[in-house]
Each structure stands twice: as structure tokens, then as C-alpha cells.
């Protein structure tokens, strides 16, 4: 199955799982969606979806004057289609503001900055210092992410071959396969890489300075984004944003 067909398949599964429990928001309610495999931004703990993005989105929706709907947890690649289908009203998923995505959805003002990290096993056996040293190695990333985009660039440049790329449904599985030796490196956002180094026997080999910014995603015809942006500005000014950073990132 090629990569696009794979994404469509997981997309279809994600959406049908969503429809069962989701009514779609009225104008007063904003139903947030995420892919809860990206600590410390969003992950599950004791069956609950938690993390920096979860706390931030709930605070922002509330300040903007709307009800927070029930969180929808689906594949990362299904988030934009589900938003545009009206199954969710807001994406809070560490999603990088990107030109291709901006053609499909709107983003709030940026709320986080991150680059990419190359994660390896902590045993010190393979310690690349640059992307050139990934040649002939098996490299993994989560489907549909900017980390995958970096690997696609390496394939295009001829540094690694298509068959060296392992695509994962989420980063938790990718990091597991890294620990097991099934891949030699994982390309993943820096703050999430750092989080995994604290819990698993993996280490950051080097960073790729992509200078990405995360935004909350909303439908292009949803005017409520103005209130969401006001609320983001407000929590930055009154110190709530810093409190959330201290709670989830330090
Ligand atoms: N920042 C990267 C992107 O936008 C990765 C985001 C992955 N997020 C997640 N919740 N799994 O492509």
C-alpha cells in the first residue's frame, strides 16, 4: 500500500470511530480534536487525555466564551478531514503551521515553537551528527507529520532510500521500534523527543533547525477564531500561559 492509500485507510477508520460519539458542535460549543500520542502536548494517562495542548485549548475555549466539547482522539492524518467534515471544531495537536495545511484550514496565532530532533538508541552505538550520517540507516516518523516531511526530503535528496523509511501510526510506536532496534533513528519534534528521553532508553543525536510554530486549527469559515486569538493573547498577558508551561513542560 502506498503512503497516501495508507493514510486514507487510517483516516476512514478514525472518522467512523469519531462519528459514533460525536454530535458536532453547536455554535456555543467547540469540540476539540487531537492525537494523544505526543507527550507532553497530548497523551493519555489513566484513560484520560491530558497535556499542555489539552489544558491550553480548554482554557482558551473557555476564555473565548464557548463550551468545551468532549475531546476526540484520532489519527493525526484524520484531524484536518475531521475538522472540515465538522466532526470536530478545533485541532489542538502540536500541529505546525504550514503552507500546505493553511490551504485547507485556518490556524490561530502561534502558541509554541519547535524544531525537529533525530532520536537514536541511548546505547551510544549509532551517534550521527548530521542528516548525511543517516545514509543506509532505517529511519522512522509518524504518518503525516513534518518529521515525515524531513525524511521525504532526505529520500528526494538520495540520502536514504524509500525502503529505509518506516512510517508509524504514532510516535509512541516509532520510539518502541527504535528501542527494539527495528529502526536506527526517529525524526520527531524536539520537545517530544526530550520527553521520550526521560522515559525511554533513547537520546537526541542532533537537531534539525526547522523553526516550526504550532497553532490551533479551525475551519476556514469559522469566525470564532478571532475570539480564540484574543483568548491566547489574554492568557499570555495575565501569566496563565506561563503557568501552563511550568505545569506541563518543566
Ligand atoms: N509538529 C508536527 C506536525 O505538525 C508533529 C505533530 C504531531 N502531533 C501529534 N499530536 N501526534 O506535523
Architecture overview:
With 250 residues, the protein is of the alpha/beta class. It has two domains: 5-111 and 215-249, Periplasmic binding protein-like II (D-Maltodextrin-Binding Protein, domain 2); 115-212, 3-Layer(aba) Sandwich (D-Maltodextrin-Binding Protein, domain 2), CATH 3.40.190.10. It has helices at 3-21, 52-63, 79-85, 99-102, 146-156, 171-180, 190-199, 225-237, 240-249; strands at residues 29-30, 32-34, 37-38, 42-45, 48-50, 67-68, 72-73, 90-91, 106-107, 112-121, 139-142, 165-168, 185-189, 202-214, 217-218. The strands form five sheets. The protein has a five-stranded mixed sheet. Strands 7-2-8 form a three-stranded parallel sheet, covered by helices on one side. Strand 4 and strand 5 form a beta hairpin. Helix 2 (52-63) crosses helix 8 (225-237). The chain binds arginine (ARG). It comes from Halorhabdus tiamatea SARL4B. InterPro entries: Solute-binding_3/MltF_N. Keywords: Signal. Residues 29-250 form the Solute-binding protein family 3/N-terminal domain. This is Extracellular solute-binding protein, family 3.
Q: Largest sheet, described in full? A: 5 strands, mixed
Low-confidence stretches: 1-23
How many domains comprise the coordinates? 2
The name CATH uses for the topology of the largest domain is: D-Maltodextrin-Binding Protein, domain 2
Q: Assign a percent range to the helix content.
A: 25-40%
Alpha-beta classification:
alpha/beta
- Assign the CATH superfamily of the largest domain: Periplasmic binding protein-like II
Radius of gyration over C-alpha positions, nearest whole angstrom: 18 Å
The appropriate CATH architecture of the largest domain is 3-Layer(aba) Sandwich
Order of helices and strands: HEEEEEHEEHEHEEEHEHEHEEHH
Strand content: 15-25%
CATH class membership of the largest domain: Alpha Beta
Amino acid at each position: 500500500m502506498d503512503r497516501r492509500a495508507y493514510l486514507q485507510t487510517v483516516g476512514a477508520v478514525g472518522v467512523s470511530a469519531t462519528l459514533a460519539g460525536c454530535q458536532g458542535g453547536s455554535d456555543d460549543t467547540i469540540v476539540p480534536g487531537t492525537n494523544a500520542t505526543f507527550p507532553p502536548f497530548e497523551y493519555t494517562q489513566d484513560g484520560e487525555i491530558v497535556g499542555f495542548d489539552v489544558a491550553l485549548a480548554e482554557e482558551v475555549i473557555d476564555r473565548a466564551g464557548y463550551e468545551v466539547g468532549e475531546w476526540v482522539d484520532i489519527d493525526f492524518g484524520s484531524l484536518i478531514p475531521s475538522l472540515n467534515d465538522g466532526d470536530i471544531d478545533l485541532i489542538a495537536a502540536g500541529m505546525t503551521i504550514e503552507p500546505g495545511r493553511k490551504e485547507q484550514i485556518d490556524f490561530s496565532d502561534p502558541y509554541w515553537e519547535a524544531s525537529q530532533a533525530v532520536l537514536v538508541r541511548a546505547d551510544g552505538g549509532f551517534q550521527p551528527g548530521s542528516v548525511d550520517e543517516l545514509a543506509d540507516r532505517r529511519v522512522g516518523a509518524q504518518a503525516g507529520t513534518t518529521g515525515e516531511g524531513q525524511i521525504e526530503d532526505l529520500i528526494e535528496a538520495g540520502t536514504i532510500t524509500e525502503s529505509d523509511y518506516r512510517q508509524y501510526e504514532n510516535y509512541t510506536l516509532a520510539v518502541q521500534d527504535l528501542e527494539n532496534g527495528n529502526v536506527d533513528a526517529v525524526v520527531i519534534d524536539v520537545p517530544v523527543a526530550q520527553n521520550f528521553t526521560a522515559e525511554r532508553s533513547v537520546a537526541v543525536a542532533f537537531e534539525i533547525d526547522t523553526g516550526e510554530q504550532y497553532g490551533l486549527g479551525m475551519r476556514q469559515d469559522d469566525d470564532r477564531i478571532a475570539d480564540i486569538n484574543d483568548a491566547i493573547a489574554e492568557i499570555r498577558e495575565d501569566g496563565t500561559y506561563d503557568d501552563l508551561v511550568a505545569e506541563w513542560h518543566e
